[in-house]
Design brief:
Elements: H1 2-15, E1 18-22, H2 24-29, E2 37-45, E3 53-58, E4 63-67, E5 71-75, H3 87-102, E6 106-111, E7 116-123, E8 127-134, H4 140-149
Helix pairs in contact: 1-3
Length: 162
């Protein structure tokens, strides 16, 4: 898991116009115990119309991903022996999410009137995936940041190649 996350970081930095830097604040925002953080990296595309990303590599369960303004995911979701996660499937999902973001196939729409957040990924490998969630659990500070960086259409632009 950690090797794939590091390879993704290397790939993003080597192939796209981005700025990568260690950011312990990202791990704090994702509620990771400081003693479990191996690496906490922000990836900021040169073009502000592109979705920023963050990857936190931990001792357990492995990798936390942040994309765009509000998307967050944990890989594996649980990590306990009882869940018996399919590692190749988890790695594919991580790579697909990152690939969708860098290709401009990631959409985030804040529906303030309905109090919902809609996030969509469109991948050639896996097809279309959409999730909607309430805005209730998002802090006012995170919502304000999201409003400030989200593209007006909600569609993040493809990352520029080096």
């Amino acid at each position: 898991m950690k090797l794939v996350a590091q390879a993704l970081l290397d790939w993003m930095q080597g192939n796209f116009e981005v700025r990568c830097f260690e950011d312990p604040e990202l791990a704090r925002q994702l509620h990771v115990d400081p003693g479990e953080v191996v690496s906490s990296v922000r990836i900021i595309p040169a073009d502000s119309r592109c979705a920023p990303a963050g990857i936190v590599i931990t001792t357990f369960p492995g990798v936390l991903l942040e994309l765009g303004a509000l998307y967050q995911a944990v890989f594996p979701n649980c990590g306990c022996d009882g869940c018996d996660d399919d590692v190749p499937e988890i790695l594919d999902e991580l790579e697909t999410l990152v690939g969708s973001a860098v290709c401009g196939a990631f959409v985030e729409i804040l529906q303030n009137g309905t109090g919902r957040l809609v996030q969509r990924f469109d991948s050639a490998e896996t097809g279309f995936a959409e999730q909607a969630s309430a805005l209730d659990d998002i802090s006012p500070a995170r919502l304000a940041r999201a409003h400030a960086i989200l593209p007006p259409s909600g569609v993040w632009a493809p990352w520029s190649l080096r």
